[in-house]
Amino acid sequence: MTERDVIARAFDARASNYDESAMHRGAAEAVATFVDLTAVSEVLDVATGTGLVLRALRERDQHLRLTGIDLSSGMLAVAKDAVPEAALIEGDAARLPLRDRSVDLVTCVTALHILPDVSAAIAEWRRVLRPGSRVVTATFSMMDGKTSGDDGVIGASRPYPRTHSPFRSVAALSRTAFAHGFSITRHTTWSDESDTVLIAEWAPES
Question: Cα–Cα 20 to 30 A to 194, which of 51, 103, 138, 141?
Fold first, then answer.
């Protein structure tokens, strides 16, 4: 079984109650508030899960054309009920089935730390973005009151590796973005009672 299969099965198991998480709902709403929707019509949400980010963006602008991609068929089944107008794709973030320069905004919320091939996924962002378009990510800087790091712990509820340190601070995220041909142009933080999320806008370097 590949790492992608393990991730898909783990999130299939969480699909029925994933939306009960106030943290995930709050982070999605914070991202939708942060996003600059000027001249945006085509949105791609990478690792969309149950479509929380797509739902929050729809609340801001019902004319957006929404696409989400995720490995988990179970999560996408929930998303299809919640966002029936969206194009929802079961697939790999490292191989997006989209045309070059076809997207105005890419979002990736609380997922970078588990993507099996981050470099390939970010390269795909560059490929599908139209000139002048942006990426917005949300990454954990604190979890349960502790700094997020390369814990890499695999357990029963999270049976896959997790790598936080390249994304857990503005400085770290800026280094990661620069290494992949992006710069961080804006950022903010959002927090609930236990987790703090860094929300950042990425612009492709010319």
Answer: 51
For residues 67 and 105, what is the distance between their CA atoms, to the nearest angstrom?
Answer: 10
> Which has more pLDDT, 159 or 184?
184
What are residue 194's phi and psi, to 5 degrees?
A: -130, -30
Percent of the chain with pLDDT over 90: 88
Is 63 within 8 Å of 41 (Cβ atoms)?
A: yes
Whole-angstrom distance between the N-terminal and C-terminal Cα of the chain?
Answer: 39
Q: Residue 187: give its domain's CATH number.
A: 3.40.50.150
- Specify the DSSP class assigned to residue 167: G
In which domain, by residue range, is 38 found?
3-204
Instruction: Tell me the pairing of strands 65-70 and 87-90.
Output: parallel
Q: Output the CA angle 93-94-95, nearest 5 degrees.
A: 90
pLDDT over 90 at 159, yes or no: no
User: Distance between CA atoms of 53 and 46, rounded to whole angstroms?
Assistant: 10
The answer, yes or no, to whether residue 146 has pLDDT greater than 90, is no
Q: Looking at per-residue confidence, does 52 or 144 come out higher?
A: 52
